[in-house]
Description:
The structure holds two protein chains of two kinds.
Chain A: H1 4-22, E1 32-36, E2 39-44, H2 47-57, E3 64-68, E4 76-79
Antiparallel strand pairs in A: 1-2, 1-3
Chain B: E1 3-7, E2 14-20, E3 27-34, E4 47-50, H1 51-56, E5 60-69, E6 73-84, E7 89-98, E8 107-109, H2 111-114, E9 118-120, E10 127-131
Parallel strand pairs in B: 3-8, 4-7
Antiparallel strand pairs in B: 1-10, 2-3, 2-6, 4-8, 5-6, 6-7, 9-10
Amino acid sequence: MSNAILDINRELASRINAEARSNPQSPYANKFVGIANGKVVVVADDLDELDRQLRLAEPDPRKCCGVEASRDYTEVHEIWRLI
Amino acid sequence: MPRAQWPLRNGRPNIEIVLTLALDGKPSPRTLLADTGAGSRQAGFDLILDEDDCVLCGGLHLFTATLRGAYKGAFPVYSVRVDLPSLGFAKPLRVVGVPSVPPGLDGIACFGFLNRFQYGNFGDRDSFGLEA
């Protein structure tokens, strides 16, 4: 499968998140947004709904991605090291 | 309230989840280290699994998480359906896909996931449990 769809989906997800973070009035702010084949196909209130509706809209997960709009994806998370 | 308990493994707390393989829909159990030191409540992810498991279970790509500590760098996060039948839990969770997991285990249940439940030994020092 071409990576083109993945790249387009991720670019759109990035733009949606940037919009939601800069504009709290954005329709995507604090929503779970599902993207398939380069288009927004789901705007949901939680991951459960996003997952269900996005799989209905596009059964092939390789053609989909989701974004939790307004989240700061630059944050670094600590995983304590195992002894 | 439903409760599930698992014997400690090498003296460490662990839980068992059930994944569903995308290819044939068969359930596939996985044993995870129960690690309250993995991520924070706000981390935005619940589990750490081998990325192959995320893909084999038809995970939807959500975002990339940057980790430090036991794992360093940027890793994909997927939405993966996870079941804990004894607790009646069946939901998609945010799962970080990594190239390798702790030896003898299939991944890590992070604090964000454990904190959805009451957790502890519930009076049995040889086990670890979750209560919904």
